[in-house]
Amino acid sequence: MDGSEQVDAYFSSGSDENGIMAVSNLFHAAHATQVLHGCKKVLDLGCGPAIQLARIAELNPDCHFVGVDLSIEMLDRAHTLIAKNRLSNIEVVKGDITKLEQFSDASFDGIISTVTLHHLPRADDLARSFYQMSRVLRARGAIYLADFSRLKSLKSVLYFAYKYRHKLPHVLCLDYERSLRAAFLSSDFQKQMHHLASYQAILYITRVLPFMLAIKTKDRDVSPDIKIVIKNKRLALPQQYRNELDDLRLLFRMSGLNDSIFT
């Protein structure tokens, strides 16, 4: 995402805990938490302005998170958000997720990335990123990756991109369209799963409408208190957005993804 107008729109919309972006933010925060529970140090690939990362860090206060992004403007926004939310368990640094040169082998307990990997320009870059994940992640480490899956129909792309055109800035809808068009095929991700074989990660794709995928390791037990927080956050959403969240849960559940974290 380039340009201050796009960054402003993304930051404003994503920061609204009752807005449409709160749906995906809560979904990914909940599932990431169920995977990461017990981790001490987690790397976020392509953290952007840290909106999603902040949601996850709030649910996992005993874990230290390191966010990596190439955009200085995004990182500046991240610093602002981290300070505003008084989150002491996040640091963000400039870096290339296809290289991760500043991190040593096996230096993280977990890795997350939420709707970022489609920004990589080529399948070769995706392969390099997956290799780096396997390099910096410790044995038996936790993984939660989520991204768009390329849709075959232009009609479907336009439907998703402009579904909330009356609620979101046009520049954000346009960026969403470009992201859906730029998404990798699910087969591109499948080809890279061998890098994560030792972690027993599984790829899930939304059924019926294959517009999103998740790659994750086994869920871990979380405390009842965390489940209550997530349940209350879902109930706090406006009814329309709560329905959107439940629809997303259903599409993933149909592919076998366990979402007991919400119940």
List the helices and strands and how they pair.
Layout: H1 4-15, H2 21-36, E1 41-45, H3 51-59, E2 64-69, H4 72-84, E3 90-94, E4 108-114, H5 123-136, E5 137-148, H6 154-162, H7 170-182, H8 186-192, E6 202-205, E7 212-216, H9 224-236, H10 239-253
Parallel strand pairs: 1-2, 1-4, 2-3, 4-5
Antiparallel strand pairs: 5-7, 6-7
Domain Methyltransferase: 40-155
Protein name: Methyltransferase domain-containing protein
InterPro entries: Methyltranfer_dom, SAM-dependent_MTases_sf
State the helix count: 10
Tell me the strand order in the biggest sheet.
3-2-1-4-5-7-6
Helix-and-strand structural type: alpha/beta
CATH class: Alpha Beta
Strand content: 15-25%
Total domain units: 1
State Rg. Answer: 17 Å
User: What is the number of E strands?
Assistant: 7
Domain Methyltransferase: 40-155
Protein name: Methyltransferase domain-containing protein
InterPro entries: Methyltranfer_dom (IPR025714), SAM-dependent_MTases_sf (IPR029063)
What do these coordinates show?
This is Methyltransferase domain-containing protein. The chain has ten helices and seven strands. A seven-stranded mixed beta sheet has the order 3-2-1-4-5-7-6, sandwiched between helices. It has one domain: Vaccinia Virus protein VP39 (Rossmann fold, 3-Layer(aba) Sandwich), CATH 3.40.50.150. Helix 2 packs across helix 10 and helix 6 packs antiparallel against helix 7. With 263 residues, it is of the alpha/beta class.
Offer a quick outline of the entry.
This is Methyltransferase domain-containing protein. The chain is α/β, with parallel strands linked by helices.
